[in-house]
Design goal:
2% helix; 14-stranded mixed β-sheet; YmcC-like fold
């Protein structure tokens, strides 16, 4: 199986005045930590899950780099896709590569093909920013080919991003203080699909919950942190 290494998630940046402890990463700071995100449909029925593990944390000069492995399972528990991503912390800012938005179930069909990913960064601000703060847009383009021909060209645009609120939410994994982000998402493969998402992030954990709504504002599904085991 060909594994794709995406620089998913997260460029964490911290400069001369920051140490690893000062960096407010939206990712576990301990090697070996494992967690699980379960995907649900609008009626609350599990549709699959993604398991994550921090494989390594390395610091060189003023940059700390995290390597995270993730495996996508279908609703029957069968493995669909395994990959990894890296994250960095620099200058106290936290952002990740838009490639994190790639669906493992969708990519399972193309894992033995040539995949080109062109992704911008995706900022997750600190808790010090006020509600209503606007955030930078993001984009992702994925091209899948074989024998010199492209079989898939997917484009994702994330716009109108802002800090929606600060909330404490509970999941099967516990209670978490979160920053809530909202944005519009436009995805085009053959046709363009418009949606709106809300995402809850906790410092030192990552995404705790996300919700996806269609153009009419109807909930289409959600994902939630259901397991977290610190090494």
């Amino acid at each position: 199986m060909k594994q794709l290494v995406f620089s998913f998630i997260i460029v964490l940046f911290f400069g001369n005045i920051y140490s690893q402890e000062d960096c407010k990463a939206y990712l576990p700071m301990t090697q070996g930590t494992q967690w699980e995100i379960t995907n649900f449909n609008a009626k609350g029925k599990a549709q699959g899950k993604i398991q994550y593990e921090v494989i390594s944390i390395e610091t060189e000069d003023n940059v700390t780099t995290f390597t995270v492995e993730h495996t996508t399972f279908d609703k029957k528990g069968e493995v669909l896709y395994t990959s990894s991503f890296t994250a960095e912390c620099v200058d106290g800012k936290f952002q990740f590569d838009m490639a994190y938005r790639m669906d493992g179930g969708q990519m399972q069909a193309y894992q033995n093909m040539d995949v080109e990913v062109d992704a911008t960064e995706y900022e997750i601000p600190s808790f010090s920013e006020p509600e209503g703060t606007s955030l930078t847009d993001g984009s992702l383009n994925v091209r899948v080919g074989a024998n010199g021909a492209y079989l898939l060209n997917m484009n994702v645009l994330v716009t109108e991003r802002k800090i929606e609120a600060y909330e404490t939410i509970e999941t099967a994994a516990g209670s978490f203080d979160c920053i809530v982000l909202s944005q519009k998402v436009s995805t085009k493969v053959l046709i363009r699909i418009q949606s709106t998402t809300k995402e809850w992030y906790a410092e030192g954990i990552g995404m705790v919950r996300s919700e996806t709504y269609n153009r009419k504002g109807k909930l289409q599904g959600y994902s939630e942190l259901t397991s977290y085991t610190k090494a």
